[in-house]
Amino acid sequence: MQKHIYIVSQAGTKPEYAAAVEDGVRDFMAMFPEYEDDYPISYLGQWHSKKAIINRRGYMSLPPDDRSLYIRTTDGNYLVPYESTSWSMAIAKYSALNHGRPDQIDASMLLELMESDPTVANIPQIDIHIVKDDAFAMSGGRPNNFVYGVGQTDKGFVLSTKRFEQMYGDNPEYLREVIKTITIHELGHVFDATVMGRHNVANRDGYGPHCDCPGCVMRTDTRAKPNVLTNDRLARAAHGEPPMCPECIAMAKVHFAELSGNFKHMQKAALDFNLIRRRTRDYS
């Protein structure tokens, strides 16, 4: 089954950041060459459909109960639900405002919109939202401050570039590598590489399951900061090694195989994972 990977961005996001995300997606998929053709990658920028905006007359013709999700623009028109990146970002900004965070994006809301997007039924997809504002995510009913990235299995992830720009903006090449690293990390979550109960996986800090293997890009970034994960990834790349540990790669292959619906792929992936799990106790 083919599943598109769509990259969209908030207005004002620097093009070079989107290019870094796209490179990160390609680096991730290179670990799974048998599935690369099944996941075509498209950068859509500030995407909108042909019916993304309606005028006031069109809005007033709607049944009153259908108007709640429409967003009024400064020129008096209305953004139609799910028909543009501008609409999604506006909803996420409004949700952040309701949480007392007027200068942030509610990443959890963007993930909810991915879940409820009606186009997903017709076009199976993984969505990546790049935002230039600070982002937060809800956890246990409370917001987590300033998340770098947050993902949801089989749906997609949100990546905020603001903190990266503040920390590494004086070194554009390194900043690009950091963005690539976090992209690979979040895609690992999207494709379920760190399933709880797996060897070397734990949820020690409440940010979800992460890998404990030294050097693996799937380590939690609260204990291994973005620059640490990036430096490890670059060091491994210099030796021709992938950014994820053998167990994370094998587990993600199990998930890819399950999504493919191919029984032979699923059987082989499960056997390979069990073999690697038995052989691999430490990773360096």
Q: How would you describe what is shown here?
A:
The structure is a single chain. This protein is α/β, with parallel strands linked by helices and 284 residues long. The protein has three domains: 1-48 and 84-177, Collagenase (Catalytic Domain); 50-81, no CATH class; 192-284, no CATH class. Helix content is 40%, strand content 17%. It contains nine helices and 13 strands. The protein has helices at residues 15-29, 56-60, 85-98, 107-116, 162-168, 172-190, 226-238, 246-260, 263-279, and strands spanning 4-9, 41-45, 53-54, 71-72, 78-79, 104-106, 125-131, 134-139, 142-144, 149-152, 156-160, 201-202, 210-211. The strands form four sheets. It has a five-stranded mixed β-sheet, with helices on both faces. A three-stranded antiparallel β-sheet has the order 3-5-4. A three-stranded mixed β-sheet has the order 6-8-9. A hairpin with a 2-residue loop joins β8 and β9. The longest helix has 19 residues, at 172-190. The radius of gyration is 20 Å and the shape is globular. The relative contact order is 0.12. The model has no long low-confidence stretch (mean pLDDT 91).
